[in-house]
Structures
1.
Amino acid sequence: LADHKVGDEIVVPGAALIEMVLAVGREILGDGPIGVEDHDVVRALILPSDAMREVSIRYEASLSRIEIWSRPRFAEDWSLHAFGRVNLLDAGIDARTVAPLRGPEPRGAIENSENEVYEASMNAGLNCGHFFRRVTGIVRDESAVVADLRASLIEDGALRNAFVLDPSSLDAAFHGLFIAWPQTEGQKKAHLPVRIRGLRVH
């Protein structure tokens, strides 16, 4: 996580919060296609370099609702960071009906290299280190950004398939947005994902 900084602060990626939700959903709901709906990040989860934070994940079965909270270690007050719903999807849904990740390039599409993408992210204040710098190039038009990613560098050791969805992959999928919506002159603002209406993992 030290490889994911906004400015000089270590910020837990929104993609890691999504993985927490998926992991709880998988443990509680079991195997099968799983979906996250109406996931909102209301406060960034910042990790101080000189202290520890405790994380609490709370599940309300009647609402299929998951909340992610944290607090400084041994403190009394908790802060809400994200909430949303997680459900098992209809097992009959065919993953092949999902649009391909990279189809024919649309007319007038723009291609950008890895260096261009991460120069734009640095200009926005997002500093991606070795483990999160996954984009090798993007192709984009006015309505979509498609990123090509290199293989994950995160090792799971003795644990196999430790992630439901590797958070470094999901995080990197957003990196093309920094060049799709560049900074205006004199601006330095990192656009971070704060809402995901729906996500499916097959």
2.
Amino acid sequence: DSAALNMDVVLVGLFVASHSAGIYFNAFRTAGLMTLFMFAITLVIAPMVSRHYHAGELARAQAVTSFCAWAGFLFSVGIFGIFLFFGPLILSLFGPDYSQGALILVILSVGLLADAATGPTRIVMMMTGHEKAYVRIFGAIMGAGFVLQLVVIPLFGLVGAAIVNAGSRIVAQSAIAIWTRKYVGIDTSLLGVRALFALSDK
């Protein structure tokens, strides 16, 4: 899925000037800092989710997932706040002109913040044996986003690319979270805490 999420970087490089592409690339990579904690914690919880799910311990699998979702989201909120108030300063570390990417950074970060709110969707689907469904849903939505980028980038430039990237990410992760809740029985989103209480009462 990394290739799909990075596709807009390639398209920006094809459709806009190299300097503008550099501004987008730096904003894109900087926004990616929001995912570091979630990436690290999913490596820890992956075997736990698999073990509890396949043992029929759905409440425990839900508890682990909910903890991951909230921990990752709170970390992302903190980083988002830094980007919101100090984005131009951070990007200027790459060079004075790169501070122009502050709006791009915020737009991309909104998508990543929503991504964090849906929790560890990919890991849960992979660890519960639903890899094909994940690829099908994610691939279809990101494929549509790719086609949209071909139209949007020449017309609206970097801002358009960032909006489509964030929008595609939000739609894809939300769809996967809904699918996971319906067919796996685990709510990977922040609302999973509510599902945890319901499972505990059973």
